[in-house]
Write a structure and sequence with these properties.
Length: 104
């Protein structure tokens, strides 16, 4: 399953009320580290489609969401479980380190 485009309008339904964990990628089009991480995020979305949703928040278009979750550096990945933040990773990491830091 492809990543879900998240906005202030659909965040509660798609993330906070989701029936399984959601990995949210806070990113921007101009951010080179975000572009470096994007293929890895897509790979995780495909590999863990049965147990995890993956969404993307463009911080330039969704500044309110970025501010709500204290995003000061991107890329920032936040894992939500049962509507609560369960893990956070900032910056580019290899897949194993990223999964381990998020408890996946």
């Amino acid at each position: 399953m492809a990543e879900i485009v998240l906005t202030a309008e659909n965040f509660e339904e798609k993330v906070l009320k989701a029936d399984k964990p959601v990995l949210v990628d806070f990113w921007a089009t101009w951010c080179m580290p975000c572009r470096m991480l994007a293929p890895l995020v897509s790979q995780i979305a495909e590999e863990k489609a049965d147990s995890l949703y993956v969404g993307k928040v463009d911080v330039d278009e969704q500044g309110e969401l970025a501010a709500r979750y204290g995003i000061s550096s991107i890329p920032c990945l936040i894992l939500f479980k049962d509507g609560q933040e369960a893990g956070r990773s900032v910056g580019v990491q290899d897949k194993a380190s990223l999964l381990a830091s998020l408890g996946l």
